[in-house]
Amino acid sequence: MRHSHVKLKKTLQDRCAELDHARSRAEQYEAEVKKLRCRIEELKSELSSVEDEVRKAFVLFFCICFIKSKFFYHYCHRAEL
Fold first, then answer.
1. What is the mean pLDDT of the chain?
2. Torsional sign, CA 44, 47, 53, 57
3. How far is CA 37 from CA 24, 26, 42, 47, in A?
């Protein structure tokens, strides 16, 4: 009976150690997930800023192209006169 008790106590200790280790890993994974979620939010924000810059540059580029085309159109027709 005493031997069974000691054996069960040892099994319980082993299981508790495994559980503590699993909890520790879970906490580490939680911390890593939290960091990754924060990084994802940072990247989303950066992407949004870059998209805004690209959009503005695109509009500016087409405005410049439009202005140049109008200028050259008037310049060429003026030269014909």
1. 90
2. negative
3. 20, 16, 9, 15
Q: How far is CA 64 from CA 47, 58, 68, 69, in A?
A: 25, 10, 6, 8
Structure tokens at 68: 């140049």
* Per-residue tokens: 76: 């060429």
∠ CA 76-78-80, nearest 5°, is 75
In the chain, the amino acid numbered 45 is: S
b/e burial code for range 41-69 (CB count within 10 A of at least 16 → b): eeeeeeeeeeeeeeeeeeeeeeeeeeeee
pLDDT at 75: 65
